[in-house]
């Protein structure tokens, strides 16, 4: 199923996106549900054509946990070695934006770059999501969405640690929706900037797979429903400039598109 969070004339709701996979947005509808999607799904009976609503980031997150250098080719292009265990860092919840929201370039940086990624959304498991083995980690995964780990590369190099470079408002686009029941062992991850293909990778090339990442993070911090884990980016990261349009596409999920603007 595909779960979206959206604004409609009556307010904000969660809903199920209906229509064939790969169909144009104009052919899709969204059916409102009465609660967050982690619980039993009950439809309210209200539906809208997808073009008549505004999609938001598909979930509220207490934290966004990111994984660095999880594709060997990306580690190499930045002159880094592949880590022996997952390299994790955090993005603040205030960095999250949804589809078609603007990525705003901060004046502190002269080198903001895109990073297309598969994102994991944590759901409700049989118990607290802490210190999980790989099997238990798989059971707390609710679904998957697209992410763009926008990065001020010059600040990342200057600071050494990642907080400022990764944490600006608007630096974590998520969407367009959450897909459940998806086999993510070998999916294409692609990024296009103003119709130029910048990144093409496959999830089978991740150094650490999804279950390993969720397990590893859970041994550091408790994962709550709605938390998001970004699984790393393939090679091909590059600059974003004001006026660009950047699209992250993950096979089986859809397109996450955002314009790029200068911060006023």
TrEMBL record:
<dbReference type="InterPro" id="IPR018833">
    <property type="entry name" value="Rv2993c-like_N"/>
</dbReference>
<dbReference type="Pfam" id="PF01557">
    <property type="entry name" value="FAA_hydrolase"/>
</dbReference>
<dbReference type="Pfam" id="PF10370">
    <property type="entry name" value="Rv2993c-like_N"/>
</dbReference>
<feature type="domain" description="Rv2993c-like N-terminal">
    <location>
        <begin position="1"/>
        <end position="58"/>
    </location>
</feature>
<dbReference type="GO" id="GO:0019752">
    <property type="term" value="P:carboxylic acid metabolic process"/>
</dbReference>
<dbReference type="GO" id="GO:0046872">
    <property type="term" value="F:metal ion binding"/>
</dbReference>
<keyword id="KW-0479">Metal-binding</keyword>
<dbReference type="GO" id="GO:0018773">
    <property type="term" value="F:acetylpyruvate hydrolase activity"/>
</dbReference>
<dbReference type="GO" id="GO:0016853">
    <property type="term" value="F:isomerase activity"/>
</dbReference>
<dbReference type="InterPro" id="IPR011234">
    <property type="entry name" value="Fumarylacetoacetase-like_C"/>
</dbReference>
<keyword id="KW-0413">Isomerase</keyword>
<feature type="domain" description="Fumarylacetoacetase-like C-terminal">
    <location>
        <begin position="63"/>
        <end position="260"/>
    </location>
</feature>
<dbReference type="InterPro" id="IPR036663">
    <property type="entry name" value="Fumarylacetoacetase_C_sf"/>
</dbReference>
<protein>
    <submittedName>
        <fullName>2-hydroxyhepta-2,4-diene-1,7-dioate isomerase</fullName>
    </submittedName>
</protein>
């Amino acid at each position: 199923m595909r779960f979206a969070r959206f604004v409609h004339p009556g307010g904000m709701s969660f809903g199920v996106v209906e229509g064939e996979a790969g169909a144009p947005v104009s052919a899709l509808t969204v059916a409102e549900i009465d609660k967050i999607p982690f619980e039993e799904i009950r439809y309210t009976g209200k539906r809208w054509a997808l073009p008549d609503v505004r999609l938001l980031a598909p979930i509220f997150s207490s934290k966004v946990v990111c994984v660095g250098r999880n594709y060997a080719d990306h580690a190499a292009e930045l002159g880094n070695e592949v880590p022996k265990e997952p390299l994790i860092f955090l993005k603040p919840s205030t960095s999250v934006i949804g589809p078609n929201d603007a990525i705003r370039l901060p004046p502190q940086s002269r080198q903001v770059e895109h990073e297309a990624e598969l994102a994991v959304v944590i759901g409700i498991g049989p118990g607290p999501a802490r210190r999980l083995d790989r099997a238990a980690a798989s059971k707390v995964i609710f679904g998957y969405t697209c992410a763009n780990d926008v990065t001020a590369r010059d600040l990342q190099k200057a600071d050494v640690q990642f907080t400022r470079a990764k944490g600006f408002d608007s630096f974590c686009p998520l969407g367009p929706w959450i897909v459940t029941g998806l086999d993510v062992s070998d999916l294409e991850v692609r990024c296009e900037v103003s119709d130029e293909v910048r990144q093409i990778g496959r999830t089978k090339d991740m150094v650490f797979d999804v279950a390993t990442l969720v397990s590893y993070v859970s041994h550091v911090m408790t994962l709550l429903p709605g938390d998001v884990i970004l699984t790393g980016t393939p090679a091909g990261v590059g600059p974003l400039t004001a006026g660009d349009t950047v699209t992250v596409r993950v096979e089986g999920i859809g397109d996450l598109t955002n314009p790029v603007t200068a911060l006023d």
